[in-house]
Structure formats: C-alpha cells, structure tokens
Design a protein that fits this description.
The protein is mostly beta strands. The protein is built from six helices and 27 strands. The two termini are 37 Å apart. This is Aspartic proteinase Asp1.
Length: 414
C-alpha cells in the first residue's frame, strides 16, 4: 500500500479526550530481553483477489488480535483507534481503545525521529503528546497520536510482551466515515526508520534488526524478526542503497527479457511489501509491454478486464498462471552493486489469472501512479524468502516454498 509516505505534525485536538480515557490500570511495560532472538508470524492473504498479505498481532492487556497490513515501504505501525474516532472504517475487529497513560510525549526520541525523518522542524501542539499524519501514494492516510502498549511476540520457547510505540489513528481518509470496509485494522510499518517495530525491538535487545518474509502464491506465508532462520547459502545478497525516502533498495538494476537487454537505462528499484503489484516507470514499463506483446502467439487475444489494465484471454479458460506460462518469458534484474546479483522474475511472478479466467500483467505503469522509482511488489516477491538485514545493510532473496507454518519453524530450533 505504501510505496512512499510522509509524516507531518498536526493539531492535537483530542488530548483532553485521551486523558479522560481510563479504561483499565495500565500494566507495566518493561520487557525482559529474551534469550530467544527470533519471532515468527503466520501470514494470511494473497496477491489476488485479496490484494495484500497481513499478520495477526496481539496487542494490549489483555492482548486482543488485530490484522495488520505488512508494509516494508513505511516506518509507522498504526491501528484504527477509538480515541474517540473522528473518521474510521469498518474493520475486522473492535477498534483499539488506548488507556489514559499510554500517550507518548512530544519529547520522546521516537517522536523526534518521526518528525525529523521527514525534514519537519515543527513543534508538537502539546508537549504531552506526539501527533502524526501519514499519507500513502494511493491517497490513503492516517492521522492520530503516538501511544505505547504491549505486543505479544511468539518466540521460540514462549511469548514475550514488550512495550512498543505505534500510532493510534483516529482519522483515516479512505472514503466517507465508516463507508469503506477495511480488510485490516491497521498497518505494520517495517521500514528502515527508528520508529519501525523491528528497530524498536533491536533497541530493546529483543531481536536483531533483521526481518524477512516468504509470501506464498497459494496464499499465506510467514514473517520473521531476527536472523536465526536466514539461510547460510543460496541467498543472493546486495548492499542496501541510500534513497531519498530511506526505502529498502538494492540500487539500480538493468532489465532483461528472456536474457536479452531491453535497452533501457539502469533503473532504481525499491522492495515494498505494502505494494500488491510491481510498478515500473514509463520507459521500462513500455519496454516490457512491447517485449511481451511481441512474443505472444495468436492464440492469446487482448481483452478488457476490471482487475488490471492489460489482460489476455485464450482459446480455453485459464485456471492458473501455469496454464499459460509457456506463452511468456522470464524477466531479469541484474544489480551492479554485487557480483552475479540477478533476480529472476518468471511469469508466475508478474502474471495473475482473474475470476474472469483471463491472464493479466501484474506489472503496472508507475508513471500513472506518479512514482519516480520502480517498485518490486508482492507479486514479484512470491515464493522466495526476502531478507531485509539492517545490521549489515544488505538485502537478500532465495527462492523456495513459503508454505511452512510459523509453529513448525519455531519448533525446529532447540
């Protein structure tokens, strides 16, 4: 969802109401660093038709479940919040309700980082709270205040419950108030900034600042914090490049189609699990479309489908991408920042089959989305472990099945 985002402080109009909330005695938020250094979560969702992958996070005391959209393209985790809510969507679970003493003050280091990370020198309207406003490239937004509460994390031997800082969103701009049914309760921000959950876990000595995900084409998959299950071989590693938005980027890559250069200049690439599809800027997008069309047989006819802009139908209805895979060729991205660093993008990593039994291109025109860089989204990251190693400032990927359960992964450790 969030290929790009920005934060700016906004007026804290609901401070008094938040301070009047006294729903329960606030539990101690001290977390004892765990000897176990990995947390693993089961993922749900898919590229099509759900449109995203999400995790169940248990938050509060007593802990209650919330569905969070997994987003490596932004830093801030937030929940739609009854503070009370000014503008919220219908969500899968009852709105999160903060306690009176859960507010994060303006002087808190994470508040400072949240604001200064976007070049803003504005002060908080009140020293007692930290206001935020985040906007995404698809025009969705969340406005609220930072709070701190316990997250229940499934570790090897037991769950731990560290206190973590996140957003209590009381104003979400997605349609009219309550008119849009949201598939999740909020966002799990896993970007490179210090307010990111995985950065906070590192600061508390709970896990290393490493995360990864494995998204299955069959739906579901797993997400992990820490480096214990990172493979020691078969991983393609590239150094993280510095980008203007501080995104996870392997740097510039040269694009090939069926191992032939498409003749476009090297393209800056960003990995973003919050984006369902992959986006290429104008020149590489047009080059890919031309190459694909030039290689198709006459048995495929271009058709209109509400799911995506470019689709084809065959002489027989398609049930899966594998019914039509032979008609398409693999794409390749070759990164100059590391030796032999190539990401293969086979047809199943850029095509979907819709409910209308057409096959559609899951690489979209970034220019239409007003993107200035290229985004590798969920569709292209499926069926491979993608690793974001902030400790060593490197990104990695290794192809493999993503069907293992979180419980079986944790049980494989002594």
């Amino acid at each position: 969802m969030a290929a790009a985002s920005r934060w700016t402080p906004v007026a804290g109009v609901l401070l008094l109401l938040l301070l009047l909330l006294s729903l329960a005695a606030n539990p101690s938020r001290a977390a004892t660093p765990a000897r176990s250094s990995i947390a693993v979560f089961q993922l749900q969702g898919d590229v099509y038709p759900t449109g995203h992958y999400y995790v169940t996070m248990n938050i509060g005391n007593p802990a209650k479940p919330y569905f969070l959209d997994v987003d490596t393209g932004s830093d801030l985790t937030w929940l739609q919040c009854d503070a009370p809510c000014r503008s919220c969507n219908k969500v899968p679970h009852p709105l999160y309700r903060p306690t009176a003493n859960s507010l994060v003050p303006c002087a808190n280091a994470l508040c400072t980082a949240l604001h200064s990370g976007q070049g803003s020198n504005n002060k908080c309207p009140s020293p007692k709270q930290c206001d935020y406003q985040i906007k995404y490239t698809d025009s969705a937004s969340s406005q609220g205040v930072l709070i701190n509460d316990n997250f229940s994390l499934p570790m090897r031997s037991s769950n731990i419950r560290p206190g973590l800082t996140f957003g209590c969103g009381y104003d979400q701009q997605v349609g009219k108030n309550g008119a849009v049914q949201a598939a999740t309760d909020g966002m799990l921000g896993l970007g490179r900034g210090s307010v990111s959950l995985v950065s906070q876990l590192k600061q508390q000595g709970i896990t290393k600042n490493v995360l990864g995900h494995c998204l299955s084409t069959n739906g579901g998959g797993f997400l992990f914090f820490g480096d214990d299950i990172v493979p020691t071989s078969r991983v393609t590693w590239v150094p993280m490049a510095n980008t203007s938005g501080n995104y996870y980027s392997p740097g510039s890559g040269t694009l090939y189609f069926d191992r032939r250069s498409l003749g476009v200049k090297p393209m800056e690439v960003v990995f973003d699990s919050g984006s369902t599809y992959t986006y290429f800027t104008a020149q590489p997008y047009q080059a890919v479309v031309s190459a694909l069309k030039g290689g198709l047989s006459k048995s495929l006819k271009q058709v209109s489908d509400p799911s995506l802009p470019l689709c084809w139908k065959g002489q027989k209805a398609f049930k899966s991408v594998f019914d039509v895979k032979k008609e398409f060729k693999s794409l390749f991205l070759s990164f100059a920042s590391a030796k032999n660093a190539v990401m293969e993008i086979p047809p199943e990593n850029y095509l979907i089959v819709t409910k209308n039994e057409n096959v559609c291109l899951g690489i979209l025109d970034g220019a239409a989305a007003k993107l200035s860089f290229n985004v590798i989204g969920d569709i292209t990251m499926q069926d491979q472990m993608v690793i974001y190693d902030n400790e060593k400032s490197q990104l990695g990927w290794a192809r493999g099945a993503c069907t293992r359960s979180a419980k079986s992964i944790l049980s494989s450790f002594p």
